[in-house]
From TrEMBL:
Belongs to the sulfotransferase 3 family. The keyword Transferase applies. This is Heparan sulfate 2-O-sulfotransferase pipe. Its main location: Golgi. Coiled coil: none annotated. GO terms for cellular component: Golgi membrane. The lineage of its organism: Eukaryota, Metazoa, Ecdysozoa, Arthropoda, Hexapoda. Residues 1-20 form the signal peptide. It is found in: Golgi apparatus membrane. It is a single-pass type II membrane protein.
């Protein structure tokens, strides 16, 4: 009990420390909610006057494809891996801190609306994302044991369960700007409420060092702290390397272990191309929801309505009020060591945009 009281006191101190810096961030988030296709950075350029807003997102991809002659060749049937599925089970091997909690809540609500089973992994004391071959086979057996149609959700690296003799499911996931994600993860594991929840679930878990909890990301990067040095080819084994989202697509192969390497990047890209029906993008939820609705309609019909009118408007999920803003200068330092992660993110964005453009929907943007 005394540990929980101490943690509550620490939470109050941290909240007061970041509250003022957080107000401006919250105002920007409100503006983005009102204009969901515009990022905070884009809003600055819109408000600044004469210079035209640069093409971004889907429009940028469309211009690129038109310039190469690929636009006319887009066909949704060729870009939809849903048809490869051998069972009506969606496998969402969700990446942490990419909006997956929100997508999970959307799926839960859609399961009632669209009449399918909703299944998620239980909270674990130690969450292992890389599995042995035997554990991968067991996971495949469990996923395939659910009555279709259904969805199974778990934090785990991409697991090709067809390699273990089980029918191919419908794979989905989300990605996020890798720098914003690593910052979000940094503060998420330091949030006092995170440790309160963990302590309640597992009372014997020791509390972390208060100095570690208070460590600021910018200071961590600028001082070359071991935690914030992202070294090319470095391997962090154990429960998994949460610094990068490509790990969740690369899979369980040893080539996936070294940080920011070409081999891991190519394996992640290959898995997306061959197996994933949809990989959405947190920063472009309109496009993500539209593609989900059109490429996996059995499960995602009505996604936009539920998301914008129920979840986004009334139920902000997993917002971390203890995360202070980070300067662009510090983000640029981190970006230098996240080159493959950034390339993977851009690859997923372009694939999503191609899927959207192939639908040839009326332009409402």
């Amino acid at each position: 009990m005394s540990e929980l009281v101490a943690l509550a006191a620490l939470a109050t101190t941290l909240f007061l420390f970041v509250h003022n810096r957080d107000l401006n961030t919250k105002l920007k988030e409100m503006e983005v909610r009102i204009h969901p296709d515009i990022t905070a950075h884009q809003m600055i350029s819109v408000q600044s006057g004469p210079p035209a807003r640069p093409l971004t997102g889907v429009r940028s991809t469309m211009k690129l494809l038109e310039s190469t002659g690929e636009m006319s060749l887009l066909n949704p049937d060729n870009l939809n891996n849903t048809k490869k599925a051998q069972q009506q089970i969606v496998f969402f091997n969700r990446v942490p801190k990419v909006g997956s909690q929100t997508l999970m809540e959307l799926i839960r609500r859609l399961s009632i609306r669209n009449d399918f089973g909703f299944h998620q992994d239980r909270v674990q004391r130690v969450e292992t994302i890389r599995l042995s071959p035997d554990d991968q086979a067991s996971l495949g057996a469990m996923v395939s044991s659910y009555e279709p149609p259904g969805v199974y959700i778990k934090h785990v690296c991409f697991t090709n369960i067809s390699e273990f003799g089980f029918p191919e499911p419908i794979y989905i996931n989300l990605v996020r700007d890798p720098i914003e994600r690593v910052i979000s993860w940094y503060y998420y594991v330091r949030a006092p409420w995170y440790y309160v929840e963990r302590k309640i679930a597992f009372p014997d878990i020791p509390l972390p060092d208060p100095k570690w909890l208070k460590k600021d990301f910018e200071h961590c990067v600028l001082t070359g702290d071991r935690e914030c040095r992202y070294v090319q080819g470095e391997i962090r084994e154990g429960i998994g390397d949460h610094r990068r989202q490509s790990m969740f697509f690369c899979g369980h192969h040893p080539d996936c272990l070294p940080f920011n390497t070409e081999g891991a990047l190519e394996r992640a890209k290959m898995a997306v191309e061959r197996h994933y029906a949809v990989v959405g993008v947190l920063e472009d939820m309109n496009t993500t929801l539209t593609v989900l609705e059109n490429y996996i309609p059995r499960f995602f019909e009505g996604s936009s309505d539920v998301y914008w009118n129920e979840i986004s408007r009334y139920n902000p999920i997993n917002k971390n009020s203890f995360k202070p803003p980070v300067s662009e200068q510090v983000k640029d330092i981190v970006r230098q060591n996240f080159t493959k992660e950034i390339e993977f993110y851009e690859f997923c964005k372009q694939r999503l945009h191609k899927q959207y453009l192939a639908l040839k929907l009326p332009d409402k943007r």
